[in-house]
Amino acid sequence: MIRTETVTDVTEETFDAEVLGAALPVLVKFTADWCGPCRQLTPVLREIAEEEQARLRVVQVDVDRQSPISVRYGVLATPTLMVFRAGEPVASIVGARPKRKLLQELADVLDRT
What are phi and psi of 9, to 5 degrees? Predict the structure, then answer.
């Protein structure tokens, strides 16, 4: 899995604290090493994490290593992006997108922060 400074890796042990208990909305990228579109999305999410850090936190979950989290939220494809607010999933996006399109889709979440 591609790791960056601005996108935190989350595990079964840290998911509840890092995602469900977060003060800000959290964008979770469900990803895998073998997923080409996931790799394409990495720089996009890194930029969004840097630019929107006051309004949104970005983390990633490896679906192969942390499969119980994927099963719990019904993730069937990678990449799947889920936004959590106050411990609940409020948005789900499947597939890679350019930054501008992804920001448009996240506008409702970001505007409520």
Answer: -80, 135
Residue 35 annotated as catalytic: yes
For the entire predicted model, the pTM comes to 0.92
Distance of CA 67 to the CA centre of its chain: 15
CB atoms within 10 A of CB 93: 17
d(CA 94, CA 102): 11
Of 26, 38, 41, 96, catalytic: 38
**Can you give the pLDDT of all 113 residues of the chain as single tens digits?**
555 667 999 999 999 999 999 999 999 999 999 999 999 999 999 999 999 999 999 999 999 999 999 999 999 999 999 999 999 999 999 999 999 999 999 998 777 65
**Integer Cα distance of 58 and 78 in angstroms:** 16
**Given 7, 28, 35, 56, the catalytic residue:** 35
The answer to whether 4 is a known catalytic residue is no
* Distance in angstroms (rounded) separating the CA atoms of residues 3 and 84: 21
